[in-house]
Amino acid sequence: MNHFQTILPRVRMLLAGHLPSQARALLDSMLERELLSREYHCALLRESDGEALARKISLTLLEKGDPGLALLRWAWGTWQAPLAERDPDDKDRAGSGQCAAMELGPLEGGYLELLNSNADPLQLYHLYDQMDPAREEIELCSEPDMDTINCEQFSRLLCDMEGDEETREAYANIAELDQYVFQDSQLEGLSKGIFIEHIGLEEMIGETVETLEEKKSQKRCEVPQASQVLPSSSPAIHSLPKSPERPGSTSPFAPSAADLPGMPEPALTSRADVTEEQMSPTRSPAAHEVSGQLPKWPERVEKFCSALRDMYQAEPAGPEGILVEVELVRARLERSSSKSQERELATPDWAERQPARGGLAEVLLAGGDHRRPRETQVIAVLGKAGQGKSRWAREASRAWARGQLPQYDFVFYLPCHCLDRGGDTYRLQDLLSSLGPRPLPVDDEVFSYVWRRPDRVLLILDASEGLEGQDGLLHSACGPVCTEPHSVRGLLAGLFQRKLLRGCTLLLTARPRGRLAQSLSKADALFEVAGFSAEQAKTYLTRYLERAGATERQERALELLQGQPFLLSHCHSPTLCRAVGQLSEALLELGGETELPSTLTGLYVGLLGPATRDSPPGALAALARLAWELGRRRRGTLLESQLPSAEARAWAVAKGLVQPAPGAAAVGLAFSSFLLQCFLGAVWLALSSDIKDKELPQYLALTPRKKRPYDNWLEGAPRFLAGLVFQPHADCLGALAGPAAATLKDRKQKVLTRYLKRLQPGTLRAGQLLELLHCTRETLDAGLWQHVVQGLPARLSFVGTRLTPPHTYVLGSALEAAGRDFSLDLCSTGIDPPGLGSLVGLSCVTHFRAALSDMVGLWESLQQRGEAKLLRAVEEKFTIEPFKAKSVKDVEDLGNLVQIQRTRSSSEDTAGELPAVRDLKKLEFALGPVSGPQAFPKLVRILEAFSSLQHLDLDSLSENKIGDEGVEQLSATFPRLKALETLNLSQNNITDVGACKLAEALPSLAASLLRLSLYNNCICDMGAESLAHVLPDMGSLRVLDVQYNKFTAAGAQQLAASLRKCPHVETLAMWTPTIPFGVHEHLQQLDSRISLK
C-alpha cells in the first residue's frame, strides 16, 4: 500500500493539471507498452470520474510494476513541452501566469499544494480556452460516457471479456487489488470524515476553510464576487471556489462540466444562479458589465452569431413573406394494418385533437419530460406537401433571431432538398457552413463552441423527405468521432441515431408517408400541421393581393373564390391557396367578366399556359420529363446541366417554375413547389409516347399491383393526369403543348376510360374510393362521373381514413349526384365540424355514425347559430348502433349524450328521447383490467337511459374485471332494462358473492333475457347453488354458460337437477376443470342439453 500511496498523488497531479487530450496520450502510451489491454484502454477512455481514472491507472502501474515511474516522468516531460513552445504572441496575454503554470511539475501534494503555489488559476483558465479546436474536436468526439452506454454495447463488452482469457484474468486481478485498496484504514478514515461533513458538522473544518480562503484570495486576480462562494457540492475540497463563469468546476484550472459532453449528469452542478442572458452569445450591455472582465464568448463567435441572426431575421421577399400562422396538433404514428409494418399518422376525432396552443415554445419543450440527460431531442413536424411546414420552420429560425428562444445559442436551418449530393464527403463543420439561405463560414473556433455545447444547439432539417433518395440513410454507421470526412448520408445518420452532436435538439419537418417517416415512431414528440381553415385561406388571399399592390381587387378576388367551393376547399393547403392568389391576380388584371377554373388541372393550366407561349422549343417537355424522372427517385432538385439549354434555364427561372436551391451548389435548382412538380410529371405522362398504353392505368394508383407496385411519391400526379387527358384539348393540354399532341391524347383517353368503367367502387378501400372520385371529377366528363357515383354502395364506411376538406366536398358532390339514400360511418376520420355539418345535412344521407364528442360539439354549434331545422335533421339521422366503449373517454362521451337527452326532456321547446339513445340495441364495454373497474360505475349510472338495449357485452379479451362490486351495481339497473336479451359477464373476476347478488336480481329480467354468460369467472359451489335456485324462474332463458369456473361436482349436480325443471332452457354449458370428466359424462347422459364443449 505504500507504493500505491506514492503513485496515486502523482497520477492525480498529471490528470488534474493537464488537458483531456494529454490524458488520452498517457493511456495510449500505456497501451503501446502493453500495460493495458485494448478493452481496458477503451473503458478508461470513457471514464468520466477523474478520481476513479487516477486510481485505475495507479492500480495498473502497481500491478505491472513500472520501476522508477518512468512512464509518469515521460508523460510529465512531454506535457510540459507544449507550454514552453507556445506562440510568442501569447506571452503578453499569459504573463507570469504562464510561468506559474509551467512550474507545477514538482508539486506532489495534490490540489492543496497547487493552491499554495504561485500558479495563477485564471491564466490556466485562459490556457484551456485557447486549446486547438481541431484537437479539441477529436477529444470531445470520443465514445459516449459509461452512464449512457446502452444495453447492447454493454452486453457486447461482456461477451468480449468472457471470450478473452487474458483480459478476464487481468480484470480479476485489478478487482482484487481495488477491493484491497478501499479496505485500507487510511481511506476508511477519509470516508468517515467525508460522511461527517455531509451530516452537517461544518464547524470541524470552518477554521481551515477561512485560512485557505485568505491565502487563495491573495493569489488570484480580480474575479466576479459570485466566484468566491464556497460550493456546497464538493465534499473533498472545501477551500476551492468554482472557476469564474465555469459552473460545475471545483478546480480553478479544470474545464467546466458543461464543456465536456462525456461527463455524466451527476458531475454537472446546478445552474440556477446563471441567467439566460449570461448563457446567450448576444447579451445586453448591462449583462457585459455584470460578467466582469472575462467575456464568455470570443469575438469570432459573437460576430458569427450576430451574422446568423441577421441572416435569419431578414424579411423574405414576395409571397414568401406572407405569414398566416398554421395550427400544430399533437400526432402519433400507428400501423396502417395488423399485417403491415408501415406506420402512418393516426387519425383522431376532431374533438380529441391536442393543439399546440403554446406555439413554437410548446413544440420545443414537448419532449423535455421524457428526455434523458445529455440525450439528443428529436422533434418531428409532419404534414402533406404544401401544408406550410417549410414556412413554419423558417419562422422558427426567425424567432431565434428575434431573441425568442434564449435556450439556444446556435440555430442552423438546413433545407434538406439541398443535401442530395452523391459521392462527396463532408465534415459536420462543412455541412453547417454550406447550407442555409445565405451560407456563413463556420471556422474552427466557432465550431468548437458548437461542438462543446450541443445542448445549446438547435438543428432544423426542413423537408426531410428530400433525403429519401439516399439509400441506407437511416442504417449508416457514423459514430461520435467526426474528425474524418463522411458522406452526407453518414453525417445525417449520425444525427438521426443520436450519436453525432449528442445532446442537441433536432427539429425535422417531413411528409407523413415515406421511408423516413417510418423511423420517426421513436421521436420525442410528433406534431402535425393542420393546414388553413376557410377563414385563414381568405386572410392569406387578402394579404397576397395587398402585397402585390392590388388592394382594390381584394373583394372581387374573394367573390371569385367563393364562386368555386371546390377550390376553396383545396385552399386548406397554403401552396394551393398561393396558386389561387396568383391566378386571381392575373385574371383580374385582364379585366372583364371572369371566373376561376373548377378543377386543379384548370388552375395549373391557367398559371402555366401564358408562360409556355414564349418558351424555347422543347423546354416544357424537357422540364416535365425531369420532374417525372426525379419524382420516381424521390427527388425535387436538379442541376442546370440537366436542362437542354441556357435559354431553357433562364425561361424556367424567369417564369417561377424552378428557383435556385438555397445552400446548394451553384448550379442547383429546385421546383418552386411539390404540386408543380406533380403537375409537370403528369404533363410528361400525357405527352410521352414512351409510356405504353397498358402501363398508363397504373399511374392512377387506384388498384396497385401486388408485385412491384407503383411508388406514388408524386401523389398529386394521378388527378392531374386524369384532367389533362380528359378535359377539352384546346383549353387544357393544347394550351401547353399545342395541337400536335391531340392524337396521342385521344388514344390515352380511350385507355383510361375503359379502365375507369371496369372499376367497381364498392370493392375499393375508402382511400382508393376517394381518390377515384377526385380523378373522375378532374375529368369534367359527366358520363364517367355518373357511372362512378351510381356504383357507390349504400353503406359507406370511412373509419380510420382522414377526411380533409377537399375529400368532404367531393364526397358530398358524389352523394348528391347519385340521387339515392346513403348511410355513412364517419368515426375516426378527423373531419372538421363544417365538413361534418355539410355531409350529414344532405337529404340523401339517412343515417350516419360519428364520434360522440364531435356530435356534441356540432349540436352546440347549431344551437348557438339558431339552425333549428338542421339540428332536428341531424338528431334524427345520428346513430351510435352498435356502440363499443374502448376508453374512459368513450364512456364519458356516452354520458354527455345521455345528459343532452335529459336536458331535452326537461325543456319546454323539445320533448322526447334522442333517437341515438332510444334506438341503441347493442353496447360493448372493453376497457381492460385497469380502466374497466374505474369506468364501469359511470356506465352503470346511464344504462337506464337506453330503453331499447338488447345486448350488453361486458366481455373483453383483456378482461374488464368489474368484480363482485360491479355486478352488484349492474344488478340494481335490471328492473329498468326491460328489453335486455343478452347479458355477457364473461371474464370479469366474479366470485360467489357476485353470483349470489346476480341471482337475486335476475328475476327482473325473467321476461326478456335469452342468453346469460358467466364464462371464465371464479364461481364456486355456493354461487352455482344460487344460480340453480333461480334458474326455474327464468322463463325466457335459452342459453346459460358457466364454463371454466371453480365449482365442483356438487355444484354441477345442483345445476343439472335445476335444469330438469326448466324445459325452456336449450343449452347449459358447464364444463370446468374442477369436475372429473366422468361426472361430466354422467350428467350429459342424464340430460343432453348439458354441453361439454
UniProtKB/TrEMBL annotation:
Where is the region Disordered?
216-267, 333-352
> Polar residues: which segments have biased composition?
225-236
NACHT domain sequence ranges: 377-687
Q: Which InterPro entries match?
A: Leu-rich_rpt, LRR_dom_sf, MHC_II_transact, NACHT_NTPase, P-loop_NTPase
* Listed PROSITE patterns: NACHT
Going by the UniProt record, its keywords in alphabetical order are: ATP-binding, Leucine-rich repeat, Nucleotide-binding, Repeat
The UniProt entry, under Pfam families, shows: LRR_6, NACHT
The highest taxon in the source lineage is Eukaryota
Q: What is this protein called?
A: MHC class II transactivator isoform X5
Gene name linked to the record: CIITA
